[in-house]
Specification:
Structural class: mainly beta
Helix content: under 10%
Shape: globular
Strand content: over 45%
Length: about 800
């Protein structure tokens, strides 16, 4: 479906949804209507709360109706509200980016609906408190419903439903960046890994007897993710795959808490999660045609100077070159079934006067099954002359996980405390995979891939019915048994001393030790069968009756890594005046090893925070967070830092005026030695494994500024307004090995101005309108992709009725 078609479908479906929900809302009895203040407050500024990319300040329009005392219904105090209206949106530019960042379109909306029932005397028949809330229905990408019920200390019940419509199309991701000098020139204006999915999440939790010696907990959650996605596969050329997505998860919980000793609770919880993934993959894209009329997909890569998908993809008449890499068909099906049971025993105790303790032990033995993996390819991979292959076989993995946490605080005096925490975590993942593969070969897309039959392919194996191998062709039949293992044993102990010098100043100092033992293992047996012609290819020597069999055995290839880390920790917090608070924390870490190259062996964390409140209606806050890391071993040379500086201010002198401001600066840097492929090698390079490999420094820098502010004021008693503005501006650079790659998301500006207006027409009725502008602009040339810039206004008009 084209991007131009999507908005109209959204409007149609959104309109029908809105009509159904609004009809229900207007005809429901009080106990059936929605409630809650959280969603309503989030949605007051239209279109901003659902923008996952924003850094802005929501500006709620003031409304006197929020102060309504409500009404009574029997023994219940009732407050309810309904806000309905619609959005008007006019996005332009890259609609894929608009949908990835904003995804708001025109149409009617149920912006908010709420209902609160409260029994002040706690004598309700089934419940004392009820809160029901809904927002976002009618076409917005995020819809939420929440229900809360409570009856004194007898029970608490919470239920929620959320639907998120997720769209992603950042056209640089996995893009082949086909150069303009390719013949033909085929730019790819979208991400080959685009997705459009809908996630539904339902949760139900029930707590019984909250103040009793024995307390019970029950929970259930159901999650599903459905929709369409795209990915790619490499078979000589990059094939675009349509990936219908379907996965679900069911979560169950049972818990019990026993409190028989003073100030002590013993808890047992059982969690079970069952996960199903039924996603599949199939070839997608616009095919070319061979001269005989057969459609063939030449893939996404069109870089003819580099021979992708070949030097001359199209021949006379505009037909596809039969000697080119290509696809006739491709499918893959890989259903997965996972079961995660977890048992957990925990306690909290302050039974002893000077000692606080808490602990937790959990154990899980989980299974993951892939019962019938199946992959089919029909096309041509020119390097190996592979024309067709089928892979199949079951797989199984098991995860054994044990975790222990224990913490103790000893109050030596009223001012001095000793705190010790210990954590143990151990997991092991053994897995097996039985793989069967059958391959057929041919030199061109028009050649017939033949199976070997001695009756139709006698020596010297030149008959037309013989398999058509080359010296680079792999085995005709492969049978493999593969076993993998990954495990980690981790122990962390933190010892901390805390001291209160005065009631205005406290400090702590301590030491943390971490030990990680990581183990990886691989063993497999592979039997490859090579048919003629060329049965001795691939180094095979055991020829019997013109057929060669090569058995490759890798027994228990394993590796283990031991990492010992030491940290010194220190912090101080002071309140030199009632209006001023300052804190400083640091951790200095050093380790003797790492598991990956980009993990630092040494790092330093520094965190400074301050808050200042000179007046009751005035707040200032700031924070500085600096992390420096390095791994200076000779072959790695890794350096990194992440530095953040933030400031915020809020001024609210009265209920008619308020102002808030914030600013954040983030500086990110990393540098690591890498080994990469380059042809030809650069004039100055260090070999790492021989041509075409060369060593070099991979670097990444980004400096991002984000600032915003909001102003709210009431020029008239019944009128409230708000304006706001946020901008995120980033400048960065990184190593670019592909000369066609643009800077992309490292250098951009994202402007988010907004305004709101609310007019109280009557005591219960308020007219509201809001405006948001989304303006995203990258500062670099888009390269061989479509520009990713977008701009759009979103107006929201609504009427809010509250009682």
């Amino acid at each position: 479906m084209s991007k131009q078609q999507r908005p109209s479908v959204t409007r149609m479906v959104g309109g029908m949804t809105f009509a159904i929900v609004l009809s229900f809302a207007l005809t429901a009895s009080p106990q059936e209507q929605a409630g809650g203040t959280g969603p309503a407050e989030q949605q007051t500024t239209p279109g901003v709360a659902v923008d996952s990319a924003r850094k802005t300040v929501d500006i709620p329009g003031y409304s006197a109706t929020s102060e309504n005392a409500g009404t009574t219904w029997g023994e219940y105090e009732v407050r309810q509200s309904l806000e309905a209206g619609g959005r008007i949106a006019n996005p332009s530019g890259n609609l894929g980016m608009w949908d990835s960042y904003v995804n708001l379109y025109s149409g009617p909306r149920l912006l908010e609906e709420s209902l609160d029932l409260h029994s002040a005397t706690h004598t309700g028949f089934l419940f004392d408190d009820l809160t029901f809330a809904n927002y976002g229905y009618g076409g917005d990408p995020n819809n939420v419903s929440r229900l809360q019920l409570q009856k004194g200390t007898l029970y608490r019940f919470n239920a929620s439903f959320r639907r998120d419509k997720n769209f992603f199309d950042y056209d640089l991701l996995a893009n082949p960046l086909n150069p303009p000098n390719s013949n033909p020139n085929v730019p790819i204006p979208f991400s080959p890994h685009l997705f459009e999915t809908t996630r539904n999440m339902s949760d139900f939790n029930l707590n019984l007897f909250d103040q009793a010696p024995v307390r019970l907990r029950f929970g259930y959650g159901h999650y599903s993710n459905d929709g369409s996605a795209f990915s790619s596969t490499h078979q000589g050329t990059e094939g675009l795959l349509l990936q219908p997505t379907r996965n679900t998860s069911d979560n169950y919980q049972f818990g019990i808490s026993v409190r028989v000793l003073p100030r002590t609770s013993l808890n047992y919880d059982q969690f079970v999660t069952h996960y199903k993934n039924d996603s599949s993959w199939q070839l997608n894209g616009t095919p070319q045609a061979l001269a005989n009329g057969t459609p063939v997909n030449l893939g996404l890569d069109f870089n003819t100077p580099a021979g992708q998908p070949c030097a001359t993809p199209l021949v006379s008449g505009g037909f596809a070159n039969p000697s080119c890499n290509g696809f006739f068909s491709y499918t893959r099906f890989s259903p997965i079934r996972n079961t995660y049971p977890v048992e957990q025993l925990s306690f909290q105790s302050a039974y002893f006067k000077a000692v606080d303790m808490s602990g937790r032990v959990s154990y899980s033995s989980s299974d993951s099954d892939r019962p019938n993996y199946l992959e089919n390819f029909n096309g041509l991979t020119t390097r190996t002359a592979d024309r067709m292959y089928t892979q199949s076989g079951p797989g199984h993995a098991r995860r054994l996980n044990t975790g222990v946490d224990y913490a103790t605080t000893i109050h030596v005096t009223d001012k001095f405390r000793i705190v010790d925490t210990f954590r143990f975590a151990n997991f092991r993942i053994p897995s097996t995979f039985a793989l069967s593969e059958n391959d057929l070969f041919g030199p061109t897309l028009t050649s017939t891939p033949n199976t070997y039959n001695p009756a139709t392919c006698p020596p010297p194996f030149t008959a037309a019915a013989c398999p058509q191998h080359t010296s680079s062709s792999g085995p005709d039949v492969i049978q493999s048994s593969i076993n993998n293992f990954l495990g980690q044993d981790m122990k962390i102990n933190t010892f901390d001393l805390e001291y209160d010098f005065t009631k205005w100043m406290t400090a702590h100092a301590g030491y943390r030790y971490q030990r990680r033992d990581i183990s990886v293992g691989l063993s497999y047996v592979q039997v490859g069968t090579f048919f003629p012609k060329l049965p001795t290819r691939g180094g095979c020597t055991q020829v019997v009756n013109n057929v060669c069999t090569l058995t490759t055995v890798l027994q228990n290839e394993s590796d283990s890594v031991e990492i010992n880390g030491h940290s010194g920790i220190f912090g101080i917090s002071a309140r030199p005046a009632n209006t001023l608070r300052v804190s400083f924390d640091t951790e200095l870490y050093s380790a003797d090893n790492t598991f990956t190259r980009i993990v630092p062996r040494q790092f330093q964390d520094y965190r400074v925070r301050a808050s200042y409140k000179p007046k009751q209606w005035m707040d200032f806050a700031s924070a500085v967070v600096i992390r420096e890391g390095r791994n200076n071993t000779a072959d790695v040379g890794h350096l990194e830092h992440n530095r953040s500086y933030a400031f915020s201010a809020a001024v609210t002198p009265n209920d008619k005026f308020s102002l808030d401001l914030d600013y954040d600066y983030n500086d990110v840097f990393s540098r690591t030695n890498i080994c990469y492929v380059t042809t030809p090698s650069p004039p100055v390079s260090i070999a790492c494994g021989g041509s075409p490999f060369a060593a070099g420094l991979s670097f990444y820098t980004e400096n991002a500024h984000s600032g915003g502010g909001g102003l709210q004021f009431r020029p008239l008693p019944r009128v409230s307004t708000g304006i706001g503005y946020t901008i995120t501006s980033s400048v960065g650079s990184t190593i670019i090995l592909n000369p066609n790659a643009p800077t992309g998301p490292l250098s951009y500006n994202y402007h988010l101005p907004q305004a709101t207006l609310a007019i109280d027409l009557t005591k219960h009725l308020t007219y509201k309108t809001g405006w948001n502008l989304y303006d995203y602009h990258e500062k670099s040339n888009p390269g061989p992709t479509a520009p990713r810039n977008f701009r759009g206004n979103v107006f929201t008009l609504s009427m809010r009725y509250s009682l």
